[in-house]
Write a structure and sequence with these properties.
Elements: E1 3-6, H1 14-22, E2 27-31, E3 45-49, H2 52-62, E4 66-67, E5 70-71, E6 73-76
Antiparallel strand pairs: 1-3, 1-6, 2-3, 4-5
Length: 100
Amino acid sequence: MSVYVGNLSYEVTQDGLTQVFAEYGTVKRVQLPTDRETGRLRGFAFVEMETEAEESAAIEALDGAEWMGRDIKVNKAKPREERGSSGGGWGNKGGSSRRY
């Protein structure tokens, strides 16, 4: 499981985020998603820590805290939803999936 960190400054770095979360335990991984088109940071991150207890301590301490001029949002990350072929009907290249 990982922690979602939202409302981040676009100036944030992976090292900076690691340092902040390291105060609450061992940081295993930090992901800073970027926009596909512009390459710019998207303003949120995911931080994976060694244990659930460390994640909980970081969430409790950092949720709502001010960092780099912004009040950050920190909570348990929700599982990623699958982006299947639902919606729009393009999953089968536009043809009908009905059998007559």
